[in-house]
Amino acid sequence: MNDKINTFLNSDLLEKYLLGDTTSAETEKVETYLSEYPEVQNAYNTLQNNLEIVSKSQAVDAPKHILSNILNELDEAPVVNIKPVKKYKKWHHLSIAASFAALIFAGSSLLFFTQNQSLKIENQKIVDEIYDLRNDISLNNNKLNDIMQQFKQLNNPETEKYIITGNNRAKNLKTVAYINPKEKTSMIDVVSLPQLPEDQQYQIWAQVQDKMVSLGILSETDRQLKQIPYTENALGLSITIEEKGGSQIGSKENAVAEITLQKHN
Question: Does residue 244 share a domain with residue 172?
Answer without folding.
Answer: yes
